[in-house]
Amino acid sequence: MLDAIEARQLDVGYGGRHAAVKVLAGLDLTVAAGSFLSILGPSGCGKSTLLRVVADLLDPLGGSISVLGATPHAVRSRRDVGFVFQDSTLLPWRTVRDNVRLPLGVGQRSLTRKIEDRSTELLELMDLGSFGERLPHQLSGGQRQRVAIARALLGEPKLLLMDEPFGALDEITRDRLNDELLALWRRTGTTILFVTHSIAEAAYLGERVIVLAANPGRVVKDLDMRPFKQEGNRCKREDAAIAAAMADLRTALERAS
Amino acid sequence: MRRTPLSPQMTIALPVLGAASILIAWQYLLPLIGVPAYIVPTPTAIFGVFQRSFALLIDNLRPTLIEALAGFIIGNLAAVLLAVLFVHSRILQAAYFPVVLFFNTIPILALSPIIILIFGIGMTPKIVIAAVICFFPTLVNMIRGLDSASDNEHELFRVLSATRSEIFWGLRLPRALPMLFSSLRIASATAVIGAIVGEWIGSDKGLGALIIQATFNYQSDRLYAAIVLSSSLSIALFCIVVLIERRVIRY
């Protein structure tokens, strides 16, 4: 199967090629297409930076990265990548439906792939069918994040990048959205890179969890979660096997911090 | 300690009562303590001017209204266009924003004679003064507003491969509107000030001219009537701005 992401000796930093502060140094990472990868790590370890390089929001200083067999720029231009931020980043002057439809209104001219208006279908899918004409400030935090996910899915991306999307939500809402996200992933086969601070969330969602250490950012733990789970990345939160994996991840995270 | 909010009726009734109490005190108390009418005429005397000299007041309101309105539109439009230019060219902004800043430090009263020297004594210099006085706050607010979109919002548009003009119309401009309207609300009052200041310095028409004439002729009731009219003009412009703002900004 084709790899969704292949990064080799990736250096990423700020301040130009020479006077750079390195956020990621010599990072090697291969992510299989269609997989669900959770990325854990202490603050400042470059989790978000990694997503930004994949999304072509940031150029690496060195090394190589290929996304879906092409450059990040080509993938962004084909609109094969969706991005979900920690704050939902909904535009407050647009209705829920118009927020979901944002990708139709911008960037279409420079794109090589036209996308269709699937807003109605996506609003139904995200359980927002009757909220289309509301404004973002009339929604709860969980609903807003669902809108952000619907917007990211509008262009049917092959790769979904999620930067702590549920970090600001209460635990019950977060658990529910975790399950919805897994159902969505099973249905669409989209590759998902999911950055989180929560060990439990990383373990529950990911088929694989990597832990990054800071200064500079590098992979210090790479855990295949499939042996701890049932077919189709299914598990119960309170499973003993999952608890063992979480303890393993916690040790790695503590060492990384 | 948290105060209990007023009922809707009281929120309307209390300011009306407050204003009424001041007017009554003004009408009956000031003459009683010996304040002469040529310094502070009573409200009824001022109201009398509106009845007797309505045509004169309206004749002088008209040029001030036109000057303030034209100055408001031109000054704010120029400020918005320059702000758009500045946020799209950091070089231009770095080079010319300090110059604009310097111009803003010149008191409008000091600048006005020069403007009148350049543009003569017609309506044009008053419009220019009103425009200049509106210009700077809107420029500053608009630059801040156009730059107020968050990093995530810019990244969202970049992920979607948005063009510069799409980012402008779809993100920067809507983000700037609340700040633009807050400076337009201020400008609705300052534009009237600009027009009146211009009329003080060289005009025989307009509320500013009427204020000067009434002062020199000791027609204090007419002076106060002109003041009431100028402030009503500011309030009217302010209300129009607020009405438009409510239609445009719904979130």
TrEMBL record, chain A:
PROSITE patterns per the UniProt record, alphabetical: ABC_TRANSPORTER_1, ABC_TRANSPORTER_2
Q: Which SUPFAM superfamilies match?
A: P-loop containing nucleoside triphosphate hydrolases
* SMART domains associated with the record: AAA
Return the similarity comment: Belongs to the ABC transporter superfamily.
- Give start and end of each ABC transporter domain: 7-239
Pfam families assigned to the protein according to its UniProt record, in alphabetical order: ABC_tran
Question: Which controlled-vocabulary keywords does the entry list?
Answer: ATP-binding, Nucleotide-binding, Transport
The source organism is Mesorhizobium hawassense
Checking Gene3D superfamilies in the record gives: P-loop containing nucleotide triphosphate hydrolases (3.40.50.300)
What protein am I looking at? ABC transporter ATP-binding protein
Record-linked CDD domains: ABC_NrtD_SsuB_transporters
Q: Which GO terms describe its molecular function?
A: ATP binding; ATP hydrolysis activity
Automatic annotation (TrEMBL), chain B:
- CDD domains xrefs: TM_PBP2
The entry's localization annotation reads:
Cell membrane
Question: What UniProt keywords are attached to this protein's entry?
Answer: Cell membrane, Membrane, Transmembrane, Transmembrane helix, Transport
Q: Name one GO biological process term.
A: transmembrane transport
Q: What is its main location?
A: membrane
Tell me the Pfam families matching this sequence.
BPD_transp_1 (PF00528)
Taking every annotated instance into account, which residue ranges of this chain make up the domain ABC transmembrane type-1? 61-245
Name the protein family.
Belongs to the binding-protein-dependent transport system permease family.
Q: How does it sit in the membrane?
A: Multi-pass membrane protein
| Protein name as it appears in the record | ABC transporter permease
Quick check: keyword Cell membrane in the entry?
yes
Q: Which residues cross the membrane?
A: 35-58, 65-88, 94-120, 127-146, 179-202, 223-244
Q: Which GO terms describe its cellular component?
A: plasma membrane
Per its UniProt record, what PROSITE patterns does this chain match?
ABC_TM1
Under InterPro entries, the record lists: MetI-like (IPR000515), MetI-like_sf (IPR035906)
